[in-house]
Amino acid sequence: MRTEIRVSTPTLGVIGTGMVGLGAARRAVDAGLNVVLSNSRGPETLAGVVSELGERARAATPAEAARAGNPVLASVPLAAYEQLPREELAGKTVIDPMNYAPHSEFGLPELDSDELTSSQLVQRHLADAQVVKALHNIGPKQLLELFRPPGAPDRTALPLSGDDPDARRQVADLLNVLGFDAVDLGTLADSWRSEPNTPLYALPYVGQPPPGLTTLEFVAWVQQAPGVPVPAARIEELAAAAVRGPAGFRM
Q: Which residues form the Pyrroline-5-carboxylate reductase catalytic N-terminal domain (predicted)?
């Protein structure tokens, strides 16, 4: 179902400054929010990024970003989820944009067997936080292109999932501020409906790729493709049509 949107202007904590973390931070600053950025290499490595983003951004350690932000975007590789600062994230809404990408040196049996979704695994680690799966199925380029004001006829919607209704509403509020409608898919157990290898992952926001791409070529194409607006009704339709298959990004 679609969420009821309430306007709020939180400080966004960001742990991890790869493409997803930086894209979300840039959109948040442009939308008028304060952002606290962090990575595993230390605040001093973010001086250039902070200077580019302007006075609404500052650098910190992951623990400091966790304390300062609510919600907090945990934009680290899924393989590093256990390094997230549990104590500092306790009581916080944690946005999980992580996706499972198994390969020869990394696999998680609980995900491979569909016993858990990746976000349920993160929630188990962050037992005292409220995890919401969001910002995981759209690329940073499209996030920076497709935002629109509330009520715009071509406003794009993004899915979210979470076990805590208040946390889901908080993330929906944030998405609204960032320029997107939100479609509530329910609990983390249902978050697979928008994970890799479902109709909701990436392609709705970019259209069909050229045929014959390798995995690396597909990823590169998605990263550079122009954004395609996707209304909430289409997100609902694609979520309802999803069929659960093997977990993780696979080509």
A: 12-100
| Chain center to CA of 245 | 21
Q: Which residues of the chain have pLDDT under 70?
A: 1-9, 250-251
Residue 162, CB-side half-sphere exposure with 13 Å CA sphere: 27
- Quick one: pLDDT at residue 6? 45
- Within 10 A of 113 (CB to CB), how many other CB atoms are there? 9
The 10s digit of each residue's pLDDT in 104-118 is: 778 888 888 889 999
Q: Concatenated DSSP letters for 44-96?
A: GGGHHHHHHH-TTEEE--HHHHHHH-SSEEE-S-GGGGGGS-HHHHTTSEEEE
**Secondary structure (DSSP) of 116-168:** S-HHHHHHHHTTTSEEEE-S-SS-HHHHTTS---TT-TT--EEEEEES-HHHH
